[in-house]
Amino acid sequence: MSRAPRGLRLVRSTKAVQHLTTFVVAGVSTILLTRLYLALTGYPQIGGDTGLHVAHVLPGGLLMLAAMWLQFSYVGPGPRPLAALLGGVGFGLFIDEVGKFVTSDNDYFFAPSAAIMYVVFTGFVVGAHFWRRRVPLSDAERVANAAHVLVDGLAGRLSAQRRAEVLHSLDGLDHPRDAVGVAEVRELLERVETRTPAVPQRFEELWQRVGEGFTRLASSRFALPVMGVLLLAQIAWALAVLTELVLSRTPHGVAVGGVLVGAGASTVFTATGLWQGRRRGRRAAVESFQRSVLTSLLLTQVFLFAVSQFAATAGLLVDLALLGLVNADLARLRRADR
């Protein structure tokens, strides 16, 4: 069980970090894409000349409500990926208007807004990773997670790949003989009939191909240096945009500081990853690359958007592709270590 206040005994999810990462990436992407769209369209107001203005915090709230509805209305782990995506998009639309909430004149363009959003998202991600690493999942929590997945199996909605993953996690218990219910859960998992996940076939095949493509790229012997080069190129791109801004003497003090801190941290993580690739092995290098990508996504691109919307959007697309490649390689290495 997790360390929680007395009387509140909570079981942590094995997919918590994955879902929280989806939530954060969806939120940050929504902020950047929303601001790009508004800039390109001249900041239109929903409601036109009727005297009404529907702020995008309202659809954001509705999307967060939809995410909660999914969690409250359905059992099992099935709705969680969609809930994480909808919740992230909704929260991105909500916090994008933070400038209106902290200024007396409802200033959407309040300069420190990017810093506020950065603190929220970064604290969220760092807290999630620190919480998981500090207190590893217990055997009881792993069995409970397997039983949770079993809900989908009993309803005929469990894929063969997910079942194999859960059974493999039960094989890795520290003290399987002491874990209550492990034999019964394993038996039921092995007995349930697996089926293709209940999503449109073309959509499923598309995401399967994307995932397989990332896995193939990640398994290449050239993947590690390519990731390092792309990360360094991403940093150089941000610094080039920043240099042009400084030379033009445009006043963007907060944004300049944020980009410099983000680019500096990404450089350290990338250089560390390249060094660790030779000293400690590939997994240590990829984990460092993951920190570099997340830093760029959650810090550099957010502040860069205040300077150049085009540069930040291009950087966002590169970061998302890099994150997919890094996560695929990390998942492959973790499977190999088990």
3D structure, described in words:
The structure is a single chain. This protein folds into three domains: 16-134, no CATH class; 139-198; 203-337, no CATH class. The chain is globular. The model has no long low-confidence stretch (mean pLDDT 82). The chain has 338 residues and is mainly alpha-helical. It contains 13 helices and no strands. The two termini are 23 Å apart. Helix 6 (139-154) packs parallel to helix 8, helix 10 runs parallel beside helix 12 (282-305) and helix 11 (253-279) runs antiparallel to helix 12.
User: What count of structural domains?
Assistant: 3
Count of helices? 13
- The count of DSSP E runs of length 2 or more, i.e. the number of strands, is 0
Strand content: under 5%
SSE succession? HHHHHHHHHHHHH
Radius of gyration based on Cα positions: 22 Å
Mean pLDDT across all residues, rounded?
82
Which structural class should the secondary elements be placed in? mainly alpha
Stretches where pLDDT is under 50 for at least 5 consecutive residues are: none
Task: Report how far apart the termini are.
Answer: 23 Å
Net shape: globular
Helix content: over 70%
Q: Sheet with the most strands?
A: none
Strand-helix topology:
Elements: H1 16-40, H2 57-73, H3 80-95, H4 98-102, H5 113-134, H6 139-154, H7 160-171, H8 182-191, H9 201-219, H10 223-247, H11 253-279, H12 282-305, H13 309-337
Transmembrane segments: 20-40, 52-70, 82-102, 108-131, 222-242, 254-275, 296-318
Keywords: Membrane, Transmembrane, Transmembrane helix
